[in-house]
Amino acid sequence: MAVLAALALVVVLVVGLKQASGGDSGASSRAPFDLAKARRDLAGAPAPLAALHDQSAQLLDGGRPAFRRRLAKLEGYPVVVNKWASWCAPCRTEFPIFQAESVAKGKRVAFLGLNAGDSRDPARRFLRKSPLPFPSYVDPDEKIAKSIQAPANYPITVFFDARGKLVYTHQGGYRRRADLAADLKRYLKQ
Known about the structure:
- The chain has 8 helices and 6 strands.
- It is an alpha/beta fold.
- Strands 1-4-3-2-5-6 form a 6-stranded mixed β-sheet, with helices on both faces.
- The N and C termini lie far apart (about 55 Å).
- Strand 2, helix 5 and strand 3 form a beta-alpha-beta unit.
- The longest helix is centred in the N-terminal third of the chain and has 19 residues.
- The chain is globular.
């Protein structure tokens, strides 16, 4: 009888904790991200944003100059830059959140990745398993990250308004999609 009571208590605690967390954690219990479907959902985006979607899950070279040119081409659109690394557990945890939110908002907001402090092969392998519907710039020495005031810890998300002005830096990983959506609304009016 005591075993059944203990088991019932565990079930109640697990259900309660799941409900208290909001249930939208972006955890890996979800179905795998379908990049082809995401691209279909993003069809019809304005040309500067469509160019990002055409480079989905790619690692781009060119350093600060290429990154700055891209930001200039995105003038008129808010931009969210997520700094990540394949070895970073919180980065891996928040990837499903960025996958979902970038599809939901990708026709109005530009999303860019910044693969910093990482090696190319592990980053490629990780993107094959967890593709993003936008590209990531390679930043092994964090020169791009420093230029946008993204500190050395991981992950970091930097928000630029439609004029290209840095308006907010989120330290650490997002735990729920609702939190990223709230920051988009608060800082980018999206």
